[in-house]
């Protein structure tokens, strides 16, 4: 079977969001006189936005299937309160508390999935109810702030990979500002990340060609790899200069999840069924797809990732509070739409959602460094979301007319 090539418009839409991220970073780097890209600020960017990246992966699958989940912020608060209560009141080992939190996330996902998949209540209604139910439970459990958790638990979001390889000295010694030592572990992780990206992209292209699926041009693939590799190496270089931190544990967690969910959405039967349901639910049903089971699995997965986000959020704060997770669902949904997910379902990529989340994160940090009022920050992010969705819809309409 002969493979087809995607057209220039498809490539432009695919890489446009990455170009937008670069433009936003460069603009704020100039506007903040380089403070945005300092090692400490990059570390803070990862810490502050890890929850969005994690939630956006699950939310993307929900949106692709034509649903929405409004409960994730409240569930983050609820699970965080339960995990915090276990460690604070019952002195449960933090590892056991984390595993219990993940299990509770699965149960919450199963609860939502049951009503959506088998009772067939719209996800908007089910998760709206969940938003109120779990926020109320969080307020009951965390009626007062619980803090003073074990060091190992706090290290999940605040720790870094131990620098067991020592430091690399800059060969340009005695060059003033350029005289710098680099965290060797961070450098190795960055190089391995670039290698994994190249190998994964080439294997994916080979598989698409073998199955006769649409593929982009070789030039477009090389351009994408060059841009993404450059981005990884730049981040590696900046983090390696942070002698206090190095590679955040959070970055490894998020990186593993991105790899796993990119594979699930593009290389598994379940992932293909999610896209099929979002594209045309009736056609998928007639094709033999068990839509109820897939819907249930989507919300089960959303519950698991929400639990991960809850653990990360509680670890970063070092405390469990009832107000945790406020607005998280909006950040996750906005990241997916900015990253190219279709409002009507059936379209979206993990990489796009991650770039969308990073755009939101860079906006937050850049505007904060510039001391822009928090209310204006919210308004600006709203305009960015509206602009992204508008451009996506206009692009699709022009493609359909063409």
Structure description:
The chain is mainly α and 402 residues long. The chain has two domains: 107 residues, no CATH class; 282 residues, no CATH class. Helix content is 72%, strand content 2%. The protein has 15 helices and four strands. The strands form two sheets. It has a two-stranded antiparallel ribbon with strand order 1-4. Strands 2-3 form a two-stranded antiparallel sheet. α6 crosses α12. The radius of gyration is 22 Å and the shape is globular. 37% of the residues are buried.
List its traits.
single chain; mainly alpha; 15 helices
**Helical run tally:** 15
Classify the helix fraction into a percent range.
over 70%
Average residue-wise pLDDT: 87
Q: SSE order, as H and E?
A: HHHHHEHEEHHHHHHEHHH
Compute the number of structural domains.
2
Total number of strands: 4
Could you tell me the radius of gyration in angstroms?
A: 22 Å
Sheet bearing the most strands, described? 2 strands, antiparallel
The class by helix and strand makeup works out as mainly alpha
Give the terminus-to-terminus CA distance. 26 Å
Amount of beta strand: under 5%
Tell me, what's the shape? globular
Low-confidence blocks of residues: 1-8, 171-179
The order of strands across the largest sheet is 1-4
